[in-house]
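Bumping with the actual sequence this time:
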Amino acid sequence: MNKRKDVRITVILECTCCVRNGANKISTGISRYITQKNRRNRPNRLELRKFCRYCYKHTCHGEIKK
C-alpha cells in the first residue's frame, strides 16, 4: 500500500469579484469551478481566469478551502 499523500488533489476555485462585492444585487450566486492540481508542481494557491456567469465576464478565480 502506498502511504504517501496523493500528488493530485481536487480544489475549488471561487470568483474573487463576486466575493468582494458580496454577490451582485441582481443575482444571488457566486461562481465556482472544481478542478485538480499537482501538489508538487503548484504548492501555492491556484488562481485562474475563468468566466463568471454572475458577473458576465472573465474574472480571477482563486482557490478556497474545503
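The C-alpha cells above came from a reply further down the thread. The mean pLDDT is 83.
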